[in-house]
């Protein structure tokens, strides 16, 4: 679960808010991942309000198998 609580900008005590375009309060987001992704190796970055997630795919474990042919 991704959670955040927005901060209100610091304003002088005598300031009057004319318009407020961003919602206030806590919010959260849950993302269901495909089983082929390795959530344990996920990384995240936030830059200028944009959250970027990198979730690598799991490496397929291929095992060599010898099959005897009669």
Cα Rg: 23 Å
Count of helix runs: 0
Structural class: mainly beta
Termini separation (Å)? 54 Å
Q: How many β strands by DSSP?
A: 4
- Topology pattern, helix = H, strand = E: EEEE
Low-confidence stretches: none
The helicity comes to under 10%
What is the assembly state of the chains in this entry?
single chain
Overall spatial form:
rod-shaped
Q: Order of strands across the biggest sheet?
A: 1-2
Which key features would you list for this structure?
single chain, 70 residues, mainly beta, two-stranded antiparallel ribbon, 4 strands, 0% helix, rod-shaped
How does this structure look, described?
By secondary structure, the protein is mainly beta. It has a domain at 35-60. It has no helices and four strands. The chain has strands spanning 2-4, 27-29, 43-47, 50-54. The strands form two sheets. A two-stranded antiparallel ribbon has the order 1-2. A two-stranded antiparallel ribbon has the order 3-4. Strand 3 (43-47) and strand 4 (50-54) form a beta hairpin.
Give me a quick take on this structure.
With 70 residues, the chain is mainly beta. It is built from no helices and 4 strands. The chain is rod-shaped, with a radius of gyration of 23 Å.
Topology:
Layout: E1 2-4, E2 27-29, E3 43-47, E4 50-54
Antiparallel strand pairs: 1-2, 3-4
């Amino acid at each position: 679960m991704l959670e955040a609580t927005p901060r209100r900008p610091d304003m002088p005590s005598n300031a009057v808010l004319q318009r407020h375009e961003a919602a206030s309060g806590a919010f959260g987001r849950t993302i269901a991942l495909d089983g082929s992704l390795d959530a344990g190796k996920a990384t995240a970055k936030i830059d200028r309000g944009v959250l970027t997630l990198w979730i690598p795919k799991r490496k397929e474990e291929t095992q060599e198998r010898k099959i005897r042919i009669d």
